[in-house]
From TrEMBL:
Protein name: Pyruvate dehydrogenase E1 component
Source lineage: Bacteria, Bacillati, Actinomycetota, Actinomycetes, Micrococcales
Composition bias, Polar residues: 1-10
Reaction catalysed by this enzyme: N(6)-[(R)-lipoyl]-L-lysyl-[protein] + pyruvate + H(+) = N(6)-[(R)-S(8)-acetyldihydrolipoyl]-L-lysyl-[protein] + CO2
Keywords linked to the UniProt accession: Oxidoreductase, Pyruvate, Thiamine pyrophosphate
Pfam families referenced in this protein's UniProt entry, alphabetically: PDH_E1_M, Transketolase_C_1, Transketolase_N
PANTHER family: PYRUVATE DEHYDROGENASE E1 COMPONENT
Taxonomic source organism: Sinomonas terricola
Membrane-spanning residues: none
């Protein structure tokens, strides 16, 4: 007999914990309960059991929680609603879609193309989607606003096949599957990619685990919009279609508590339990459906299992002693997968043959009838009942665990096979068998003419089936998926809103983090624009000085604040409200990025622009959640990402894992991210203003970007905006600072003669004051005149330079463009020395575009705990290190004494970490 290894207990074992001291009485109770079910039905039985359990609790009779139920459908057959559609019509065009989806992928493997694709996922999940398309998924023209559907990434061919039947895509489009440049104009992306198909897909999902997180926070964002009075989303539902293998991703399960805690009954997960991962079974020795049932129920979700199709109802009805249910419970997934790769006779012997009673249950069934005992995910009635129950359930999110067969209907070479995920082509015999199974009116001659290019099938837009399909979509509000980018008008803040950034901090010191927060506070006060700002902070508001928002903007909590706050008497007391503006996901960067994505795409999802501003420890941004930011870029999210406590040496007491020396490099790998490293508050003001103009000013060719600003916790005197500021240079990546900066005598360089050696010092962020101090030391100690440049964006300078190179490469007949950094430094003299609080690769991005000798200083290696002065001296990035490196470059050019660098090393005790310039270590 086919068996797996030891299978863990899958039931709670309610009756196994205590001895049965009166078996006769037990039998009478069970007989009475069975009679209740038979005479009054399962709904009455459920009511009675729940009341008894409640009474048991009141009488202090302990009953363990039931986390896992029998391996049967949650909804009893007698409680299933009547199916509302024409099932036969729906079955016919569902078959056509399954054919076209598979043929599209198959044709994409023809000689000379061979771009891959996935046949089996949609083949097994077609019923799950079609029940939704025909009766549940509401389009954007629905009076309630429409649903948001996160489609399983590998099932994308099915969505294209449906769009073909609806007339949204042509055969030429289907033949452009995965050929987005060579078939441009008629191309289809491999998976749901909104950036690649901006009027079709809404949500990128194929990076496993990102979809579940984003779906949860999309449901939260819907409620947030409603409770803040921005849009009525009460009649919108979020659906997320996931794989059972995908549920192994920590991200897939890690945020379930939010949906339960906030009672997000506008959210339904549909987990396609085909029992297979990409390489083999999900739980060969166990039962993934039971595992997920326990997990979701324990997380506070409503759980609906759809395990068996209607053909099993009569067998289960005859199973009075529970022998069949027992075998269902005990059979591991590895065996279930094998059964669907064999035949009816095999199932009779190895499954039903496990006991005389179950073997007798199917004695009057043929092997073919046994083979046609379907799994629940292939039964319209069972799936419809589950969807209807999910949408009507109140108070909790719902997960529907649906058992299917991967590769269903594709034939014995595909169904349930371990390798089915990688199989992309059908043999000629496979094509014929699949055609026969689906009853597609295509002849052998048509298939044999060119097995690489079997024909698609469409009965014509006037056929009764297609008219029925289109009528169902009209009734539900239009086609799904569909993305629209039209949105409500945005009144951007006036110039006065940025005044606080331009005037500096006077005689007081303020870190750039605080300069940003002050600017944000004024932007939020704007009557028209302020309500669209969504601050998102993962449990570090006080660190960043954002606790000032607590009593005014308040923290979003749909349940309000139903407790007496311990700090209620303080000015900055912690305040929660259903109408709160701040999103506080807790210590949860992944959830924060999901919230950022939902808010940053509200302009398209809901037609209501929101401007998310996610503030976090810079070290724990792109390093921890880079994949989520990549998905945010795909979804064309707009907003601001603020990497606070940036730099490798500013957060001196926290140590290695808090020391960010590389986030600008990580951010630079995302094409949708515009990275800035501002030094002063007035720079931040111009960058934020330019970002808002780009996103919602209506004139930029590409508004779908995220601005990443690194800000610091090191207080300095924030200078007022200088007169004649080169704003264009600031925004494009670099501009020259005037003489007489903070702490610098006006005549430090002016006293030097015109023949003095010259140098160019490039710095960004917190390193700009070091460069200014280095300029003073070079002038006073070595007679060198240096210019200081604030490099606001190394990444944007590099992108500009690369674009110029590309222009020269492709169009040599045109006038060669000059990179902006080359233009800025063109008329300068002397070597160029760059310094940042990041690793050397950050300033090294622009090396090829610098028109002079170029040297970089940086904090390579791991961070550590120490004073700022010691850390900077250790990494050789402080002001005196800049001086020595500049002298070395000048000496190499023969412009200063060859001994000057050695003398400077001795003078400043450069090799002594305790001899660095004084610096504050406050955090």
């Amino acid at each position: 007999m086919l068996t797996g290894e030891n299978t863990q207990d899958i039931l709670s074992g309610l009756g196994a914990q205590l001895p049965d001291r009166d078996p006769e009485e037990t039998a009478e109770w069970i007989e009475s309960f069975d009679a209740l079910v038979q005479e009054r039905g399962t709904e009455r039985a459920q009511f009675m059991v729940r009341n008894i359990l409640q009474r048991a609790g009141a009488q202090s009779v302990g009953v363990p929680m039931v986390t896992t139920t029998d391996y049967v459908n949650t909804i009893p057959a007698d409680q299933e609603p009547e199916y509302p559609g024409d099932e036969e019509t729906e079955r016919r065009y569902r078959a056509w879609m399954r054919w076209n989806a598979a043929i599209m992928v198959h044709r994409a493997q023809r000689p000379g193309i061979g771009v891959g694709g996935h046949i089996s996922t949609y083949a097994g999940a077609a019923t799950l989607y079609e029940v939704g398309f025909n009766h549940f998924f509401r389009g954007k023209d629905h009076h309630g606003g429409g649903d948001q559907v996160f489609f399983q990434g590998h099932a994308s061919p099915g969505m294209y096949a449906r769009a073909f039947m609806e007339g949204r895509l042509s055969e030429e489009d289907l033949d452009g599957f995965r050929q987005e440049k060579s078939h441009e104009g008629h191309a289809l992306s491999s998976y749901p990619h909104p950036r690649l198909m901006p009027s079709f897909w809404e949500f990128p999902t194929v990076s496993m685990g990102i979809g579940p997180m984003n779906a949860i926070y999309q449901a939260q964002s819907n409620r947030y919009l409603e409770q803040r009075g921005i849009k009525d989303t009460s009649d919108q539902h979020v659906w997320a279609f996931l794989g059972d293998g995908e549920m192994d991703e920590p991200e897939s399960r890690g945020l379930l508590q939010l949906a339960a805690n906030e009672n997000l009954d506008n959210l339904t997960f549909v987990v396609n339990c085909n029992l297979q991962r990409l390489d083999g079974p999900v739980r060969g020795n166990g039962k993934i459906v039971q595992e997920l049932e326990a997990f979701f129920r324990g997380a506070g979700w409503n759980v609906i299992k759809v395990v068996w199709g209607r053909q099993w109802d009569s067998l289960l009805g005859k199973d009075r002693e529970g022998h069949l249910v027992r075998i269902m419970n005990e059979t591991p997934d590895g065996d279930y997968q094998t059964y669907k790769a064999e035949d009816g006779g095999f199932v009779r012997e190895h499954f039903f043959g496990k006991s005389p009673e179950t073997k007798e249950l199917v004695a009057d069934l043929t092997d073919e009838q046994i083979w046609n005992l379907k799994r629940g995910g292939h039964d319209y009635h069972k799936v419809y009942a589950a969807y209807k129950a999910a949408t009507e359930f109140k108070g909790k999110p719902t997960v529907i665990l649906v058992k299917t067969v991967k590769g269903y209907g594709l034939g014995s070479h595909f169904e349930g096979r371990n390798a089915t995920h990688q199989m992309k082509k059908l043999t000629l015999q496979d094509l014929k068998d699949f055609r026969d199974h689906l009853r597609i009116p295509i002849t052998d001659e048509q298939l044999e003419a060119n097995p690489y290019l079997p024909p698609y099938y469409h009965p014509g837009m006037d056929s009764p089936e297609i008219q029925y399909l289109l009528e169902r979509r009209r009734a539900l509000g239009g086609s799904v998926p569909e993305r629209r980018s039209r949105h409500a008008e945005v009144s951007l803040p006036p110039s006065s809103a940025y005044a606080v950034a331009a005037r500096g901090s006077g005689k007081q010191q303020a870190a750039t983090t605080m300069a940003f927060v002050r600017l944000l506070k004024d932007l939020m006060r704007d009557k028209e624009f302020g309500r669209r700002i969504v601050p998102i902070v993962p449990d570090e508001s006080r660190t960043f000085g954002m606790d000032a928002f607590f009593p005014t903007a308040k923290i979003y909590n749909p349940k309000g604040q139903n407790y007496l706050s311990v700090d209620r008497d303080l000015v900055l007391a912690y305040k929660e409200s259903p109408a709160g503006q701040l999103i506080h996901p807790g210590i949860n960067e992944a959830g924060a990025v999901a919230a950022f994505t939902a808010a940053g795409t509200a302009y398209a999802t809901h037609g209501e622009p929101l401007v998310p501003i996610y503030v976090f420890y810079s070290m724990f941004g792109f390093q921890r959640t880079g994949d989520s930011f990549w998905a945010a870029g795909d979804q064309m999210t707009r907003g601001f990402i603020i990497g606070a406590t940036a730099g490798r040496t500013t957060l001196t007491g926290e140590g290695l894992q808090h020391a960010d020396g590389h986030s600008p490099i990580l951010a630079s790998t995302n094409p949708a991210v515009i990275t800035y490293d501002p030094a002063y508050g007035y720079e931040i003001g111009h960058i934020v203003r330019a970002g808002l103009e780009r996103m919602y000013g209506g004139s930029h060719a590409d508004p779908n970007v995220m601005y990443y600003l690194t800000v610091y916790n090191e207080p300095i005197v924030q200078p007022a905006e200088p007169e004649g500021l080169d704003v264009d240079g600031l925004l494009r990546g670099m501009y020259r600072l005037p003489l007489g900066g903070p702490g610098e005598p006006d005549d430090a360089v002016a006293r030097l003669s015109g023949n003095a050696p010259r140098a160019q010092l490039l710095a960004s962020g917190v390193a700009v004051p070091w460069a200014i101090e280095a300029r003073r030391l070079l002038a006073e100690d070595w007679g060198v005149a240096a210019d200081v440049w604030s490099v606001t964006s190394w990444t944007e300078l590099r992108r500009d330079g690369l674009a110029a190179e590309e222009q020269m490469f492709l169009y040599p007949e045109t006038e060669a463009p000059v990179p902006f950094v080359t233009q800025q430094l063109a008329d300068t003299q002397g070597p160029v020395v760059a310094v940042t609080d990041y690793m050397k690769s950050v300033p090294d991005q622009i090396r090829q575009f610098v028109p002079s000798d170029y040297a970089v200083l940086g904090a390579d290696g791991f961070g550590f705990s120490d004073t700022r002065a010691a850390a900077r001296r250790f990494f050789k990035i402080d002001s005196t290190s800049v001086v020595v490196r500049t002298l070395q470059e000048l000496a190499r050019r023969g412009e200063v004494s060859a001994d000057a660098p050695r003398e400077a090393i001795a003078k400043y005790r450069l090799l002594d970490v305790n001899a660095g310039p004084e610096a504050s270590s406050d955090e």
